[in-house]
């Protein structure tokens, strides 16, 4: 947040060659070995918190576009403008709220952190970690890397594609007024839409079917009784994991 505290207006990218003490959701660790990409974007905005929270979906879509472009050796703009599956890397799916999976294993982690500044503006840091050359060891879930999937590239190439994709996605987002377009593009690339889902909240479990995202980016789950639940945060499991236990 230092550039923001000194009066910087963003957008400001910070990129490292190696990350050993990164943070994920709920305080979990995130490690980026040498060769992987760990990038954080600072954005300073007058927008309200609920609008800025949807930047996580902007980041997910941008990462999807960037990875697809690198894997398919196509310009980012071509991939972003392709509404069909031809502009997507096979097996690459967005998982609510902030993950990107490859064949069901975590390839990308995204985390948003925000601070209110003295002048009333809000500084948001969007952290994006992409497993380019190898997956971190010791993760409590399945992990993947682009190299293991046969995509030969490096962190610099991946960052160039990501930064280009962010520009396109943020333009579509349009300070939050374009979230409907982001939401539609995100859902078209999402894992588990229409499938059984199990969401672990801090105090209970919600089970049902992943119906959609609402206008704030909340996960909408329809229970077996027909009731719709809007979930702002939780751990999501699809398929067999959703029906276990």
Q: What does this protein look like?
A:
There is one protein chain. With 245 residues, this protein is of the alpha+beta class. It has 7 helices and 13 strands. The strands form 3 sheets. A 6-stranded antiparallel beta sheet has the order 1-4-8-7-6-5. The protein has a 5-stranded antiparallel beta sheet with strand order 12-11-10-9-13. Strands 2-3 form a two-stranded antiparallel ribbon. The longest helix has 19 residues. It is globular and about 50 Å long. The C terminus is likely disordered.
Brief account:
With 245 residues, this protein is an alpha+beta fold. It is built from 7 helices and 13 strands.
Strand fraction equals: 25-35%
Give the helix proportion (percent range): 25-40%
The ordered string of helix (H) and strand (E) elements is: HEEEEHHHEEEEHHEEEEEH
Structural class label = alpha+beta
Order of strands across the biggest sheet? 1-4-8-7-6-5
Low-confidence stretches: 240-245
Distance between the termini: 42 Å
Number of separate helices? 7
Task: Tell me the overall shape.
Answer: globular
Radius of gyration: 17 Å
How many strand elements?
A: 13
Largest sheet: 6 strands, antiparallel
Overall average residue pLDDT? 88
């Amino acid at each position: 947040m230092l550039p923001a505290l000194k009066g910087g207006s963003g957008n400001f990218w910070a990129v490292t060659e190696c990350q050993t003490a990164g943070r994920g959701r709920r305080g979990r660790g995130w490690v980026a070995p040498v060769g992987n990409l760990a990038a954080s974007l600072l954005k300073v905005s007058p927008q309200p918190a609920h609008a800025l929270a949807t930047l996580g979906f902007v980041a997910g879509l941008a990462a999807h576009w960037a990875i697809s472009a690198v894997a398919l050796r196509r310009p980012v703009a071509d991939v972003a403008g392709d509404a069909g599956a031809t502009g997507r890397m096979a097996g690459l799916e967005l998982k609510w709220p902030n993950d990107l999976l490859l064949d069901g294993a975590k390839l990308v982690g995204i985390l948003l952190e925000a601070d209110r500044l003295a002048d009333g503006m809000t500084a948001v840091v969007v952290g994006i970690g992409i497993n380019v050359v190898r997956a971190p060891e010791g993760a409590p879930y399945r992990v993947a890397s682009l190299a293991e999937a046969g995509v030969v590239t490096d962190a610099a190439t991946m960052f160039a594609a990501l930064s280009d994709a962010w520009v396109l996605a943020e333009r579509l987002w349009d300070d939050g007024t374009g979230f409907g377009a982001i939401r539609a593009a995100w859902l078209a690339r999402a894992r588990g839409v229409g499938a059984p889902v199990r969401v672990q909240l801090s105090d209970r479990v919600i089970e049902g079917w992943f119906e959609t995202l609402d206008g704030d980016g909340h996960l909408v789950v329809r229970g077996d009784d027909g009731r719709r639940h809007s979930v702002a945060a939780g751990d999501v499991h699809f398929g067999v994991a959703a029906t276990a236990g």
